[in-house]
# Entry
Amino acid sequence: MSHDDPRLQELLAATARGDRAAFSELYAATSAHLFALLLRILRRRDLAEEALQDCYVRIWQKSGSYSAERGAPVAWLASIARYRALDMLRARRPEVSEQQNESGEPPATHVDEGIDVQRQAEDQHELERLHDCLAELGGEQRSAVMLAYYEGFTHPELAERMTAPLGTVKSWVRRGLQRLRECLEQ
# Structure
């Protein structure tokens, strides 16, 4: 099943209606991709496995909020995975885990639970910077980076979709990421 397959939209819609078979099929079609993404971010198999389980609980709970107008299903699923991975990384930072609130519990780090206005503003500013930096990339580099990291396409899938040689696509992604990194560090 390709990452832009309309079947994924159908499975998300059925999952939103509580269809366990559809959820199982959605898991089978997308879990390897999300696990690879989580493993790249977290760099530990045990944490990636835990995050993947948390992601699918969240997907089951929030599948009704998916909207095809806002993007491909894999992009929506990947955003859930990225947020969960980032939450786990934040929770593991020593300066965060040592802090405690008045009840003696560690502070909440879940994205959907109590985001403060300052954090939302910072996130928005970072997204705007990323958007500006992406706009500076050439068309092929921008497309390759966007498809690879927001839609989850592999290099061979990109080569096929963009009708370009595999080595060229790899160069577009590598150079595009390098230029993004330089732009974001300024």
The two ends are 39 Å apart (CA to CA). Residues 95-115 have pLDDT under 50 and may be disordered. The domain at 1-114 is CATH 1.10.1740.10 (Rna Polymerase Sigma Factor; Chain: A). The first helix runs from residue 6 to 16.
